[in-house]
Give the backbone structure.
Amino acid sequence: PAFLGDDLDPDASGGDLCIQACADDPQVAVHAIRNLSRIAFGRAKIRWSQMGFGRTSRTTSAQQTPRNLFGFKDGTANILADDREALAEHVWVAASDSPDWMAGGSYLVARKIAMLIETWDRVRLSEQNAIVGRDKGEGAPLSGGDEFTEPDLTATDAGGSAIIPERSHVRLAHPETNGGARILRRGYNFVDGNTDLGRLDAGLFFLSYQRTPAQFIRIQRSLSTDIMGEYLRHVGSGLWAVPPGAAAGSYVGAGLFA
């Protein structure tokens, strides 16, 4: 559905088929897309594409939490690859879900989010911390502890105000605020040169995997009042069903075409 604040470019949204190619060297990823699109010549054409770099969330416990282009650690509370229970509950489509051909697969949401970096850079550090709900240096929640301490959304200061602000990103994205909804984030940064105004054309290529699109919708609707939204523009969007991996001698999506 449409979300508050969307400014989507129809030429950078949607599409029938999604291909994600990842590599340590971007030339390898580009070559993979080039070959696949060449094979499809005459039957399909590229609608839009996006190059990303680095990562904006950790997906294994061995990884350090990366920082996004706003300078904050990003993805501290992300679902990890070795958390099989969380993956089964929030990421993989179950056999009891429908349609049958998606069992063992997942749903991919892609959002191209432009970040107003020059505007953000003029915001005081204390205000940036309040907007995010975490300390910029260490990544700890404003309620105390270290980076991996669970945020205390009930903590208040001497005046009775919430220590983690009511409209902060951490509070509005937290599972407690969203009926327990969680997603597996696997996004990337992007920098596409500069705009006509001489500002960075840069931001977050947000990618998330979830058992049902309803999980993302729930969280994104909560974020409609996020103060951070003043420094973001959602300019591209897409949703795809990702079938389970191919069995030996078969192909991806075989259950759909059986």
